[in-house]
């Protein structure tokens, strides 16, 4: 299945990319770098560095807009580390970006695989909104779109009500949901975008013990990460991918710990990647989604009209239930063997 991944890499975005490249049923045809967790130039460095680490050639990486549609960029180095990958260091690479930007890359990929392409967005919706301006037929060209973003009847992680990806570029998110509402409507409910918000993704918590299972599946067991370790203790794993994932996850664990969530980390974006390939991992409820753009306290909030108060067509399938154990089993069974091959490809 051809997949186009739009990411703001980011610790969990990196895990999502690892999952896609580890999946035999996925053919990643392009990566878009979107400004979000870190500035877009750093996102591109991270995406190119990950491809170098994975030993994957011939996947174009396209850089997107440096700023959201109409507000300055806000980044999240506190969550993802100064360069976006926690304590991890990626290999140097002489790989380069495409001469065209991320919005054009979206459109080109959709036109190349009409009716087949799986679109995945795990960052702000800036570049998808720009792509929809370039090609209004984009919703009909895609086979499926999966968006990690929002929080439905659930608290935010950036403001009391706003989730990070939507908070960074609320205008872009509003534009994307408006386009889908107009493009599809109730007559083609299967083509509505799948939207996974914090209400769903916060059920998927990576822990030191699950990370240990991944390292073992990669044939690279190492000391289990612990809340008692010195902060920033480097991974001793022999496998280069496991080393990067452990060093990235340690930072993410520490961030979640400091937030009072425990020594764990929510894998928002890997769940979205897994759902792009297999939507049956999640149960959905469709609704009309819009984004609050003017509220003085609630800007960036995703509002789902479950009961038709607005009288507007549904424009999203919202994830409402997931089996985290099934997700982690699949994650380990794919990324473990993939990691074994890293350094040998
Ligand atoms: C989202 O925000 C980012 O920090 C993560 O990468 C994820 O995409 C969760 O709110
Ligand atoms: Ca992300």
TrEMBL record:
InterPro entries: Inosine/uridine_hydrolase_dom, IUNH, Ribo_hydro-like. It comes from the Bacteria. GO terms for biological process: purine nucleoside catabolic process. Residues 3-329 form the Inosine/uridine-preferring nucleoside hydrolase domain. Gene3D superfamilies: Ribonucleoside hydrolase-like. One of its GO terms (cellular component) is cytosol. The keyword Hydrolase applies. Pfam families: IU_nuc_hydro (PF01156). Transmembrane segments: none annotated. Keywords: Glycosidase, Hydrolase. One of its GO terms (molecular function) is purine nucleosidase activity. The keyword Hydrolase applies. PANTHER family: INOSINE-URIDINE PREFERRING NUCLEOSIDE HYDROLASE, URIDINE NUCLEOSIDASE. This is Nucleoside hydrolase. The lineage of its organism: Bacteria, Bacillati, Actinomycetota, Actinomycetes, Mycobacteriales.
């Amino acid at each position: 299945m051809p997949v186009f991944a739009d990411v703001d890499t980011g610790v969990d975005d990196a895990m999502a990319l690892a999952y896609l490249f580890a999946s035999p049923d996925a053919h990643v045809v392009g990566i878009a770098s979107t400004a979000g967790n870190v500035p877009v130039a750093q996102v591109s460095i991270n995406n190119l560095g990950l491809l170098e680490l994975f030993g994957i050639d011939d996947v174009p990486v396209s850089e997107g807009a440096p700023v959201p549609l109409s507000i300055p960029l806000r980044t999240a180095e506190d969550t993802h580390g100064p360069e976006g990958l926690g304590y991890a260091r990626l290999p140097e690479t002489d790989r380069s970006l495409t001469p065209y930007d991320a919005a054009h890359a979206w459109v080109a990929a959709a036109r190349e695989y009409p009716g087949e392409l799986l679109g995945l967005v795990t960052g702000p919706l800036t570049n998808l909104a720009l792509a929809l301006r370039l090609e209004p037929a984009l919703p009909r060209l895609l086979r499926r779109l999966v968006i990690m973003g929002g929080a439905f009847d659930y608290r935010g992680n950036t403001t009391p009500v706003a989730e990070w990806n939507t908070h960074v570029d609320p205008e872009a998110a509003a534009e994307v949901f408006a386009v889908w509402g107009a493009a599809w409507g109730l007559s083609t409910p299967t083509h509505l975008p799948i939207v996974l918000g914090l209400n769903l993704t916060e059920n998927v918590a990576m822990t030191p013990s699950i990370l240990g299972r991944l390292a073992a599946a990669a044939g690279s067991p190492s000391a289990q990460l612990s809340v008692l370790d010195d902060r920033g203790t480097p991974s001793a794993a022999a496998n280069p991918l496991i080393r990067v994932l452990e060093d990235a996850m340690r930072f993410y664990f520490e961030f979640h710990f400091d937030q009072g969530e425990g020594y764990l980390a929510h894998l928002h974006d890997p769940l979205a990647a897994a759902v792009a390939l297999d939507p049956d991992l999640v149960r959905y409820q469709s609704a009309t989604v819009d984004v609050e753009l003017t509220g003085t306290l609630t800007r960036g909030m995703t509002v789902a009209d479950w009961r038709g108060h607005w009288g507007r067509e549904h424009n999203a399938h919202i994830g409402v239930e997931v089996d985290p154990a099934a997700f982690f089993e699949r994650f380990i069974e794919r990324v473990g063997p993939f990691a074994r091959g890293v350094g040998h490809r």
